[in-house]
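Reviewer 2 asked us to include a model.

Predict the structure of this chain.
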Amino acid sequence: MSNIRGRFQKGADEAAAKYTASISFDWRLYPYDIAGSIAHAKMLAKQGIISSQDAEKITRGLASIKEEIEQGKFQFKPELEDIHMNIEARLIEKVGEAGGKLHTARSRNDQIALDMRLFTMETINYTLLGLKDFQKALISLAEANKEVTMPGYTHLQRAQPVLFAHHLLAYFEMLQRDVDRFNDCLKRTDVMPLGSGAAAGVAYSIDREFLAKELGLRQLSQNSLDAVSDRDFILEYEAAASICMMHLSRLAEEIILWSSSEFDFVELDEAYATGSSIMPQKKNPDIAELVRGKTGRVYGRLLALLTTMKALPLSYNRDLQEDKEGLFDCVDTLLSSLEVFTGMIKTLRVKAENTGRAAGQGYILATDLADYLVRKGAAFRTAHDIVARLVSYAAEKGKSFSELKLTEYKKFSPLFSDDVYSITVESSLTARDNIGGTAPQMVAKALFRARNIAGGN
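Predicted model (structure tokens):
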């Protein structure tokens, strides 16, 4: 459908040409396309396939085209279909016949494979920076509230007291797994496909190692059919992005709950909330809601490409044009979500008095009472049953554990004595002093570890 007519006697139907054109979105690949072309021209000259004079003209022309694009002076032409042909046509305009030699020993199939890999590699580096900033924001908020207690939840029911910092560090761990996934994706993206040609390789004496070195790539693709049709690295990025967005969405959901009047655990900065068009009292957590909403958008991009790839025979098929818009949107969504979420966390105010009060209410120390009986000699299942009946009794009487008399405790087990009143939120926290626990000394160590990891990412 491009301006390369070859054996065709007439041009493409206007609607068909418009349908197949990708320049409206693949224009953003221009820096990678130009970098790949400059490296290719140098390699062709090095191998004596074109003259050094032609290679110089080509590299100068490409450099000037890059300037034109960055200065907004370049005219992208839909009839030229894609970024490759737009740049090549402009190159020929600028340097004449030498520009037509650039495509020697190269196909648009291995050219776009290179562009997408270079784009994805740079994107991964930006993503890792965004994750690092977000982790640092979480650490700062945790350190500022390292003595704050809150209820830990299971099934969204109050379960056991935890430190607020411990809760935040759970998200640090999630994000660190995201860091690992993106780094892992980077290893498999860092592959040089040029030299694969359209499908079978190229019939010229090229130097692929030289190309890889020029482009800063560490590996060479080992099969030409695979190299031009592989989009696993994009799927990996989108899969890692989907998991990362899921992590953001989970924290977004908690912030939405915590900022409600029902919880009242945190207050959002006005820069990260919105008002209502009709209800003057409202302070809506729209940023968190949008991050939660955009998570499904990123999932959709992954599923779309998986669906595109599932029945493609080797090697290149035009279906692969569908990899770009989804990836670009996935990248833009993830990076902007990380940026805005980081700002929201940096400005979040924790209402320590409210979280602490919630941590001490109800029967949140029930597990500690069961552990108390175990230390007195009871089997855990027996202790669990005793405390369960004690909770039912206390709830019926409208009393907290601290309000029960010792005689009431002893109705359920003779193992209870005066030291039962030493069980508090603080003792509960302190008792959980294993690695990964919420004890203050363990959380302090976890914060130290997190700072070291975030500083080294």
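The chain has 19 helices and six strands. The CA atoms of residues 204 and 423 lie 80 Å apart. We have added this to the supplementary material.
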